[in-house]
Amino acid sequence: MSTPSAAPGTSSPAAAPVAVPGAAPATGLASVPDGAPGGRFGSLGPVGLVLAGGLSVQFGAALAVSLMPRAGALGVVTLRLVVAAVVMLLVCRPRLRGHSRADWGTVVVFGTAMAGMNGLFYQAVDRIPLGPAVTLEVLGPLALSVFASRRAVNFVWAGLALAGVFLLGGGGFDGLDPAGAAFALAAGAMWAAYIVFSARTGRRFPQADGLALAMAVGALLFLPLGIAESGGRLIDPVTLALGAGVAVLSSVLPYTLELLALRRLPAPTFAVLMSLEPAIAAAAGFLILDQALSATQSAAIALVVAASMGAVRAQVGRRRTKALPELP
User: Fold this and answer.
1) pLDDT tens across 136-193, in order?
2) Which of 18, 168, 201, 311 is most buried, most CB within 10 Å of its CB?
């Protein structure tokens, strides 16, 4: 689950449709400008890192689904957030003093959005296949990008995405559990809020300090819910180990890989690559959870992926046009 932008780097509307479900940006880190050299291996190295991060997130989500019978959806979210928060706090060691009330308010809202996004998404994948869940969730960031850009072409991409959703739901979500679809759409709305407040947190806190503190807030918010649902099952050695695996695959490892990639890869290229998340999720669901999709559902996911890529590229084109000097 992801995080959109959901990856290390400075968040921006251009990257909005491509955050990883449940992931979070290492806010405050600068991304590489367009045309920057890709390092010794050119662009192949960072592209591979981005794809590896996406695979890690979605296969982590698949592992989370397989863990739900043992710990419940809320219990899995709790394990993921708590373990990821502990790791981030130990690595970042954020400073607790010297922040204003507004700074802390931003972090609390960011952490709340993160917790809500994860909790709603895991409720969704407990009811519907992983690929459709990610496809519906990505509509939140896509809508944010469309409304932020206010360009006519992006409404075309939004229409294409809606056509994909119509196909995915079979004209009325008869083929998907309605509650699961609703949870996925709600997770998308929280994802959009998460993107907005991740950017604000990045402006107020250095490096990944704000992310670490927000993760701690999310973990504290979910801990009572996880205990209420799962109780002592959360400290079962096998469950705890699998939960730690989910945290590593869905949070710690992708943050690290995407951070390394963004140091050598232009942010727009990163955003386009991350638009492949619904397709990766569908593959993970098929390979790990035996969640086969119909031809219509596969076409629907392809439409949403194309819409996300188109919206990102339209935003990038607009920014490049604005950056061109005016001719005399």
Assistant:
1) 888 887 777 777 666 667 677 777 777 777 766 655 555 678 899 899 999 989 988 8
2) 311
| Degrees to nearest 5, angle at CA 137 with 172 and 135 | 70
Rounded to the nearest angstrom, the gap between the alpha carbon of residue 269 and the centroid of all alpha carbons in its chain is 17
Q: Which of 259, 272, 19, 221 minimizes the C-alpha distance to 107? A: 221
Structure tokens at 48: 């591979």
Q: For the packed helices 130-137 and 295-323, what is the interaxial angle rounded to 10 degrees?
A: 30
The three-class DSSP label of residue 80 is helix
Distance CA 9, CA 184 (A): 25
Nearest to 107 by CA among 28, 189, 188, 15: 28
Q: What is the pTM of this model?
A: 0.73
Rounded to 5 degrees, what are φ and ψ at 22? Answer: 80, -10
